[in-house]
């Protein structure tokens, strides 16, 4: 049994917890849920918003919930979060994203998932006016620099991103620790069972009536979705028996992409169309889409990890991916790769997988083997080790 002096109080900024935080939400949820199960000694204080406060369960003795209804990336975050954190008398805080309050002076660990804001700054990635965007981007850069230099340890999710961080910031290599992400069981309530009629109903609900290609994620410029539309249009000229399903929360960028698809006559509102914009879908429906898709396409220029492609592999969906950034490291030999700037190559590689049953089955089996390398439990264990080393 641990001495009282050995018991630490660890805070986790979990405002991204769950669907409200998109990909960051998945990472935050899995790390928090797993780490409080494996660490039976220390106390935890978990900071949440109104949107996810009730969805996080805790015992109230060893794990405490604190309402921190403060929007991320805001001035309020910089001014109010330090006060909340200080009040809880924390021995260590884990920030699962770079947005560490500038005026928080306690010990902390930060997870840096990627350097997209630094490496791909563009006014196309915002609805703000150009001058205000560049002002905000400068603020983000200052916050990232502050977080990197003041953190006791930096956690990142791939060797690629670790090397990016070391090159850009010039810090010591042993300060950055790689903890690979895991692959979640999306449809926990269904226990992974195949239900053909339920799957068919789910597809019809979204007007998916043909074999389809799938993409899951946001539509920021570095995701390269405009080129994917161009490639799909080329495929449609010869093979009209396909649909392209784009899954992601509706926002300004999806509206722009939808307008481009409409101009190419690939999308019509409320009707079965070659391209389907599903919006946000629940995890159980997402599992159906992964299982039923003919191929998952990942055309991105830059990814810190690339979790959706692994989630597709876990459900038996063959993956065709960009050969940039962390993707070859994470997906290994379980994907077919293309140059994301070469439209002809991208088209040819996707067509090859669509038209070759034997290749798709080979990719399916390789994918099942590849995802076994990644575990949220192992990610949480490695994160806990980082905490322990600091203490």
**Mind telling me the C-alpha Rg?**
22 Å
What's the number of helices?
Answer: 14
| CATH fold assignment of the largest domain | Rossmann fold
Biggest β-sheet description: 7 strands, parallel
Query: What spatial form do the alpha-carbon principal axes imply?
Result: globular
Report mean pLDDT, rounded to a whole number.
91
Kindly give the count of domains: 2
- Helix percentage range: 40-55%
- The end-to-end span amounts to 18 Å
Describe the structure.
There is one protein chain. The strands form two sheets. Strands 3-2-1-4-5-6-7 form a seven-stranded parallel β-sheet, with helices on both faces. The protein has a six-stranded parallel β-sheet with strand order 10-9-8-11-12-13, sandwiched between helices. It has 391 residues and is an alpha/beta fold. Helix content is 43%, strand content 15%.
How would you summarize the topology of this molecule?
Layout: E1 9-13, H1 22-38, E2 43-48, E3 63-67, H2 75-87, E4 92-95, E5 108-111, H3 116-119, H4 130-150, E6 153-156, H5 159-169, E7 176-178, H6 196-205, E8 212-216, H7 225-238, E9 243-247, H8 252-263, E10 275-279, H9 283-292, E11 295-298, H10 307-314, E12 319-322, H11 327-331, E13 335-338, H12 343-354, H13 357-371, H14 376-390
Parallel strand pairs: 1-2, 1-4, 2-3, 4-5, 5-6, 6-7, 8-9, 8-11, 9-10, 11-12, 12-13
